[in-house]
Amino acid sequence: MKLYHPYLEIPIVLEENKHYQLIIENPGIYSELMVELKGQIAGEKGRFVLSRADELLSISKTTDLCIDFFDSDVNQRKIVTALHHLLAKQAVNEVWYLKTQKCLADLAAYVNALTQDFELPLSVSEHYQMEDILKLMGVTIRSHPVNLLEKIVDYLNVMGKIGKVELFVLVNLKNWLNESDFMLLYDYIEYQKIQVLFVESTQRMGECSQREKFRIIDVDGCVI
């Protein structure tokens, strides 16, 4: 997978087992790139280009930008909607189809009996779907992380599997995780084969550096 922007001069090539750090030391360029990327993810036009094997990928459909890790929510509306859609498809597969039909029939019979016993005439919609029932039952992702690292791992896992995110852009994460946490995060990313671009405002060298690749835009806007 490759990510290109004119400020980068040449594409960033994201490879397995190498963790790319984009260091943007110029505050103006830093804010400009993050605002532009956020806009493209929201469906606006921009200059970021994402590709795989020379095939262009839709940034709005494949990329996630995470800046506030403490507010990263695995039960955001689009994820819960996608979850209900996947469960509804599972409900009619060869394993669950008969059980699903019986459940729906029993539910319909119960609601009809309940409404007929009411003192006023009532009507019941016959056009409901499994997604409606799942929403009514409040089906969501169970997530109880005990620390920030677990919260980030949960987020990557859910957004990748349910949200179909193919590239995560994590911003200034080194402000929040120590070296040992980063080593564990790198292990998880490699095991799950997740594509992640780390964006930082300053370069921090340490034990993790041997597993990292760097692209630096310095304070003068020059690419190193």
- Under CATH, the topology of the largest domain can be stated as Rossmann fold
Spell out the helices and strands N to C: EEEHEEHEHHHHEHEE
Shape assignment: elongated
Q: Helix- and strand-based class?
A: alpha/beta
Strand content: 15-25%
Tell me about the biggest sheet? Answer: 5 strands, parallel
> In percent, how helical is the residue content?
25-40%
Number of domains: 2
Query: From the alpha-carbon coordinates, what is the Rg to the nearest angstrom?
Result: 23 Å
Report the span from N to C terminus.
Answer: 21 Å
Total of helices:
7
Task: Supply the CATH architecture of the largest domain.
Answer: 3-Layer(aba) Sandwich
Counting DSSP E segments of at least 2 residues, the number of strands comes to: 9
Question: Poorly predicted ranges (pLDDT <50, ≥5 residues)?
Answer: none
What is the class of the largest domain in the CATH system? Alpha Beta
- How are the strands of the largest sheet arranged? 6-7-8-3-9
Mean pLDDT: 95
What does this structure look like?
This protein is α/β, with parallel strands linked by helices. It has helices at 27-41, 59-62, 77-90, 97-116, 130-136, 148-161, 179-192; strands at 2-4, 12-13, 19-24, 49-52, 55-57, 63-66, 167-171, 196-200, 212-217. The protein folds into 2 domains: 2-74 and 141-217, Rossmann fold (3-Layer(aba) Sandwich), CATH 3.40.50.11940; 77-136. Helix 3 crosses helix 5 (130-136). The longest helix is centred in the middle third of the chain and has 20 residues, at 97-116. The radius of gyration is 23 Å and the shape is elongated. The mean pLDDT is 95.
